[in-house]
User: Fold these one by one.
Assistant:
Number 1:
Amino acid sequence: MLRRFTVSMEEDLLDDFDSYIKDRNYQNRSEALRDLIRSRTVEKQWQADNDVMGVISLVYDHHQHKLQEKVTELQHDFHSQIISTTHVHMDHNNCLEVIIVRGKAGDVRQLANNLSALRGVRNANLSMSSTGKDLH
Ligand code: NI
């Protein structure tokens, strides 16, 4: 059920908010505000080491010595946190790997950190989400 409430803020801040809304193509202020609140709530769950879901994406050069092996080995160490992994051969050198994860926030973050620390990993990104039961 949607409930309505009134928010007061300085005109400058509201102008900033409205240009933020315009940049992101939100239909109205309510939807933008809901998303902002959701993202802060998710952050809190991740800080509290709750059960979370997320996506780790990494780009690496598969010619780097033993890197492919290490990426696989690490994922086996965290097999109970990994739901699915997709590998895309981007070009002659680079691979993109997208890993869907679920588990304690601390474990998932640890996996992402360990992957990103591997030599030859060019870009590792963890996008955090909440588990479905917490989503409204
Ligand atoms: Ni590849």
Number 2:
Amino acid sequence: MNEPCGFGTVTPKITEELALILGAGSVSSDGEKIAAYSHDEVAERFWDHPYRAEVLVFPESTEQVAAILRLANERRIPVTPRGAGTGLSGGAVPACGGILLSLERMNRILDVDTDNLCMTVEPGVITAEITRAARKAGLLYAGDPCSGDASFIGGNVAENAGGNKVIKYGPTGSSVMALEVVLADGSVTWFGGKRRKDVTGYDFVHLMVGSEGTLGVITKIVLKLLPLPAFGVDLLIPFPTVESAIRFVPRIALEGRVVPAAIELVDHHSLSQAEKFLNTRLPFDQAAAHLIVQLEGNDREVVADETERVGKLALEKDALEVFVADNRSSRDKLWKARKSVAEAIMAYYKNYAKEDIVVPTDKVPELLFSVDALCRKWDLEAANYGHVGDGNIHVNLLMADDRPHWHEEMEKVRTELYATVKELGGTLSGEHGIGLKRKAYLPQFLDKAQLELMQRVKLAFDPKGILNPGKLVFWDKNGEGHEA
Ligand code: 2HG
Ligand code: ZN
């Protein structure tokens, strides 16, 4: 895979110019600080060498971002936009050096508009703060990534983060009404508006969503808000086998006539890691798998009725038990366990592959059978969990600490896994993104026509290729061309 090259470097003169734009306190050339910002949650040992930016900047306004991009574009310096660094694909890793553009100081909620049911925010606002601000106004912001206590909304938009409520509300992109974007040449534009409908031209809002910082830098976001459901419950449903848990999922809509806000799967191995990490126990934790089903609504009776219906149906379809969490503390305990699985695995395993596979929902059992077969063949363990209602499973492949060539071995396992995923009509990533981590596998999932189209879109937005180079798009070896 070739990366774009021929970029300019950040000379002391350029650093001075950046300091003139931003003020000296907002520009750092400190090696340690740059190293701390030059990665996300993908462990650095996954790359052949650590990637480092040459300079780190902290703009506080759209005008400053625009001035930085004007300068960078003129001198052809790479710019890697960065949110909170909670990403799981290396999307914010500065693969080609240059300027690392942290958006952490653009962290204001600009308005909560209760007449138009939307909120305007800067990209550095923590996702959970958005949820809280909406709630204070009696409204719901539906995005709910598991990293929401730390991630920034800008990163959620750039990666089209999913999370736990996609089955009912869609991923982050479904909540995005408008974006203010600084384009590669420093010009500023708005895509969309405080409008619920808009077919006036191409849908640039949703081209920007999930574009991983390769097409522009997002500086303001208008998010759709909804009425806040008055009542909610979470059902924790243990099953004797992973398959029986998965097979129950479509029955919830079909026979239960309910669209839950969330349907999550946590297999035994995943749950036990979270329990150990949090030093807690959940009910019936010896079961092979648990589903977490979240139901919500405005009428207590209706929610109670749906709870009863789904619970009864689950028991008819092999569930071992149904636990209803209907108060704050039991609901929080349950979600804390679910949301800490990823961190627990990173704490207890050194050699892992965190996957973000999506398959058609009816193919999830087949996917997990093949994961089992891979585990036997390669002598691995797996922890399978995630957003089963969306067919998006975080297959975590875990290898013993003492396997010296684990990385190469894992590469082979992954190649086999992806071949199966492709056969099942699935794809590489549902919500974590391609970034640096998955780029080499893109041609397995997107055909030549699509890859070339992506290159042409990239060139239209960013002709000099300065925006987050090394991600999503293939360039020829001179960094000028379009060869996949
Ligand atoms: C989750 O759903 C996150 O918990 C992280 O998307 C998944 O680390 C993972 O594999
Ligand atoms: Zn997830």
Number 3:
Amino acid sequence: MPYAVGHVHDCDPFVQEGPMTPHPPTEIPWEQLRRAAQDARSRAYAPYSQHPVGAAALTHTGRIVSGCNVENASYGLTLCAECGLIGELVKTSAAGSRETLIAFACVGPNPGPLLPCGRCRQLLMEHAHPSLLIDTERGPSLLTDLLPFAFGPEDLPHL
Ligand code: THU
């Protein structure tokens, strides 16, 4: 079932703007997302860092996409879990559709949520619904709060 998510604005009954959002939308299945992230983590390829990561996100159409980190002997080539998730999103979206992410959860080897690195916040932003929520230990937080003043497609010259 598609999720009806409006833009973030002062009247949004669920999302409070600010560094943290203490009152998450009740319809987001956070536990299901965390389990999907844990499943993805079990497939991680992290022999160099021993830091397996799994990420999962809910799309506005109600699908869950996920990914795990994939490391490389050439360390700098490591793919974060979010890279796999975005790859799956793009690969499995209906042809011609622009499916956006509305909720995101990530887990590493330590208890509690793992916050996406800076590069991955940028990756997520490109495919985020304007009110994408990120699971944090203090509750759901807007990606726009975690990556303010972000560079985006609108900053590119239109050819
Ligand atoms: N990692 C992710 O998969 N996502 C992040 O947002 C942060 C870091 C991975 C990359 C590397 O394989 C391991 O965690 C240790 O940095």
